[in-house]
């Protein structure tokens, strides 16, 4: 029978026991809170709490959002192929160098999500990418999930791998300079979603969030509701409500500190193949209604994914959501909707680097204005208006 007292943890392994050969920051306090119940002893680790809250609030700062540049090597290869480049480490390094060294990027971007290769990578002129980001006042983050695989027993749905060894990987990423993490799992509307797939997605996100916080990383919680499908916006709204209810249920069960997380939802839109399209005002109405119903105000930031929308569409929708004050910072964590024009402008040619960097800055600035509710949509290029939806997109 557990007693109602604060006890020193004896059942939780010390970090040094599971991370071999690393000098790790040790928790300043390690407390286990035990409630008087025969069945539930709730453990809450307080070691990184203050730092997590600070990191989350730094990322969720006015007029700033996240540059998602955590494409896996396979996905990065597809991007490079679209401009006729081979998927070599040197080409990935050249592209990522271009992205992180855009002059003034930190005015609009507060965090950058990296793939593991990039966290340990240097720029083409030998500076650590993590250091370049810090000099730009951008917090380095890391994708910690290991991708999607088929979910046995489901309706052809998937689940996200990566929990095995996550604690030691997260501790090592912290050592390398990462301060936040991302885990993307997906929910498919055309395939159901089945109750099993939603529960698995929510539980996995909650375990990841608890483990990340235990190792000093602010978890970005991302259950992406895919754009695929012919369904209308009402159906997306219904599914999103069910998904977020379950996610917060399990986050609470796993003692996740809400003040030290960030969310990365999909906007509530019609399916990509639905004939009835929605205006930015309609997307904002549905999405804000969803957030108000499901997201506690303790959460500092909502950092949307772009999911295949065009660059301009993603910016207009974000702007529409910031026309009046929200309880949370409502911002962006886009990959495609920040990088598309930049990548095309670059085309792999050294002489285009400056123009490509300018293209990224234009998008970052537009989304910064949208975060502040001040984007007008004027002067956008035709390229920026092109949708980027791909069926069954993997990251
Ligand atoms: P998109 O903005 O391209 O949908 O990227 C989603 C994502 O999870 C990147 O980290």
From TrEMBL:
UniProt EC number: 4.1.2.13
Pfam families: Glycolytic
Cell location: Plastid, Chloroplast
Catalytic activity line of the entry: beta-D-fructose 1,6-bisphosphate = D-glyceraldehyde 3-phosphate + dihydroxyacetone phosphate
Enzyme class: lyase
SUPFAM superfamilies listed in its UniProt record: Aldolase
Transmembrane portions of the chain: none
Major localization class: plastid
Name this protein carries in UniProt: Fructose-bisphosphate aldolase
PANTHER family: FRUCTOSE-BISPHOSPHATE ALDOLASE (PTHR11627)
PROSITE patterns attached to this UniProt entry: ALDOLASE_CLASS_I
Sequence similarity: Belongs to the class I fructose-bisphosphate aldolase family.
Entry keywords, A to Z: Chloroplast, Glycolysis, Lyase, Plastid, Schiff base
Gene Ontology biological-process entries: glycolytic process
CC terms in the record's Gene Ontology section: chloroplast
NCBIfam families: FrucBisAld_I (NF033379)
Gene Ontology MF terms in the entry: fructose-bisphosphate aldolase activity
Pathway participation: Carbohydrate degradation; glycolysis; D-glyceraldehyde 3-phosphate and glycerone phosphate from D-glucose: step 4/4
